[in-house]
Structure formats: structure tokens, C-alpha cells
Amino acid sequence: MAKKTAVLAVNPVNGSGLFQYLETFFENGIPYKTFAVAEDKQIHTNSGVTLIVDDIIANLKGHEDEYDAMVFACGDAIPEFMQNANKQYNKDLIEVMRAFAAKDKIIAGHCGAGLLLDSFGIIRGKKIAVHPYVVPAIKNCMATGEKYEIDGNVYTAQNENSIWQMMPQLVDALKK
Question: Of 6, 14, 1, 10, which Cα lies nearest the Cα of 106?
């Protein structure tokens, strides 16, 4: 039976990245639930498309054991986080990410996901793929120039244009 996955989507989210995850999971029979890293379930893509996701991050907090994996769908995560770091939904995001990491669950993401995981001290010493602009900001991990990296249970893609290269390995892990 496939692993159940929590998909976290920031607001605004990169629609191309989010839809790659969701379509691949749907096509491969991987159960998932989407969670807005926001105060309500209505979020937008970077291009302005309105989406209503399944739930909000606050309702995932404390329920991490119900999921086997977490995927972080990036968008304007870094600037949004910096402007809203004191908001409860961002505090919940950090707690949820830490809970998944502490339980050695599969963690995946693209673009700025690696930077957030690194900045929060959630993953240390792992090889990660991040957007080339944020490589200098990586302190606790090893940022590579690769399109994607898989280091143990951590799957990262440089950006939405390289998610597809990482997906076959992520799908295999989620189907085990």
C-alpha cells in the first residue's frame, strides 16, 4: 500500500510545482492531502489562479503520525516567510517540518524548500538541491549544483523545472 503524503502549499504557491506533485501522486495511486500554509484553505498560485486545498497547516500539527511523508510545494516561500515569520501558520509549518524530520519520515520539496529545512535546522549534513540563488545561504547542509538530490529520506529538486527528474525515485519510495 502506498504511503500517505501531506502536501504543504505556501501562499502563493508555484502552481507548476504543486500540480506536478499532485498529478503524479494521483496517477500513481499515492494518497495525499493538501494543506495550506496560511490562515484558510484558499490560496493562490504565483500566476494568480485561486485554489481551495483540503485543509490548513494548523490542522496537520499534532497529526503527523497519520502521514508517512511530507512534500513542501514552494512558491514565494522565502519572501513570504520573512514577511510573515510571526504568523501562527508559519510557526505551525516549522513544528510540522520538525515533527516529520524527527520521525525520519520522507521529506520532499523544491526550490526554497531546502533553504527552509536548512534554516530551521531540520536537516543537517544532507546533500540538497536548491535554487541557485540561495546556495550561499545554506549553512547546515551541502547544497549541490545538481538538478535534484536524494539523501536518505530527503528528496529535493532545484526548482519546478527539475521536479520531474526527482519524481520517479520519490514515487518508488512512496510505493514501498
Answer: 6
